[in-house]
Amino acid sequence: MTQKPEPAANAPLLGCIADDFTGATDLASMLVRGGMRTVQLIDVPTSAEPVAADALVVALKSRTIPAADAIAQSLAALAWLKAQGCRQFYFKYCSTFDSTAEGNIGPVAQALMDALGTDFAIACPAFPENGRTVYRGYLFVGDVLLNESGMEKHPLTPMTDPNIVRVLAAQSTVATGLLRYDAIAAGEQPTRDAAAKLRAQGVRLAIADAVSNDDLRTLGRAFAEAPLLTGGSGLAIGLPENFRRAGLLGAGEQAAQLPAVGGRAVVLAGSSSRASQAQVAHWRESRPALRLDPLALAAGEPVVEAALAFFEDHANDTVLLYATAAPEELGAVQAQLGVERAGQLVEGALAAIARELAQRGVRRFVVAGGETSGAVVQALGVTRLRIGAPIDPGVPWTLGDGPQGHLALALKSGNFGGTDFFTRALALQS
Ligand code: ADP
């Protein structure tokens, strides 16, 4: 009999695969909150060098790509996480179960199960703190069903069926089922018994009901030994405690602590989401800000150079450089340039500005916009982020290493954060 190698004493415990960037950060924040030192990797690392952390989260961009590609990328991430010594694995997707009719939640979950040699996993997108609950297999967003929440009109992943057992069944080639609320409310052992019954019936993937953090903690305890968990970030709430009970994790008071990063700061906004608009407007009331005009960029005008000059002219203050526009203005620019070209021009300009400012000594970046954040992080040459304390729910300060050394990065997807997010973020990392 071959002996299973014992993971190294300081090896990471939990290995996570997230199907998008901001979702990865959200999960990482949840784990840090539970006292796990967490590092987010941007794509599957090419180096097998060990990463010092309690939890690792590989951020893919696999939500809407063809299922076969999502499977291949997820398996590559799993192989890397296994090589790091992780003991348990987690597949993270959106709490609104964002997926297409072809997948990718079911196919990726199945492929990960096969690779881990397990024939049962739960799927639980519930995140009650954000209003996402699952009852009798139906997903609610606030007080309404998923298909009445606006998600039915999502451009890439329209969710028209609130019964996610059915949605998962349509995506999967194995039998799916429901781990009912009744068992979960009755506690850890009844939950395990109900799962064993489903498994005996041939169910391989089970949607788990959950309407509260207590339900998620019960699920976490019941599946402490499961090789694979799948869900939103909410399901991870109970996992740090499992590792602590097993004597594998300390109290974790320092998990969110990042070294202070000095140097100048800048705020870059490429998001026109409602929250970003309010944040830009709030900043402009009292701080220096310069707008980047996509039409001027398209005409080849020196917009980047003007932004850098503006930055130099305000040596004693932090500046905001933004492309954020009101919906009518955005629509007009997109009609003229095309949505994709407009987006690329703005992302390219903000990325070029970030790269140049890092060379000029800027070490703290507050960035608004999911895609914009991806472009900036790439331009800065950052491939991994240590996750710190939250600025607002779901948006932590992070520490990245670029060619110039430590960089503090606050990366905010469109609708996150309060109106004074930029100011508060800077006050926390100064
Ligand atoms: P969010 O997180 O709010 O969706 P993203 O950064 O993901 O923000 O996406 C916003 C997209 O809109 C980016 O591709 C960005 O380059 C583009 N964009 C930003 N400002 C403008 C503008 N004024 N006109 C056209 N496109 C813009």
How far is the N terminus from the C terminus? Answer: 56 Å
Largest sheet: 15 strands, mixed
Integer tally of domains: 2
Spans of at least 5 consecutive residues whose pLDDT stays below 50 are 1-5
CATH superfamily of the largest domain: Putative sugar-binding, N-terminal domain
Q: Please write the CATH class name of the largest domain.
A: Alpha Beta
Shape: globular
* SS element count, helices: 15
Roughly what fraction of the amino acids lie in strands?
15-25%
Structural class: alpha/beta
- The overall pLDDT, averaged over residues, is 94
CA-based gyration radius: 22 Å
CATH architecture type of the largest domain = 3-Layer(aba) Sandwich
Q: Got a strand count?
A: 18
- Ligand roster: adenosine-5'-diphosphate
EC number: 2.7.1.217
Pfam families: NBD_C (PF17042), SBD_N (PF07005)
Function: Catalyzes the ATP-dependent phosphorylation of 3-oxo-tetronate to 3-oxo-tetronate 4-phosphate.
Domain Four-carbon acid sugar kinase N-terminal: 14-238
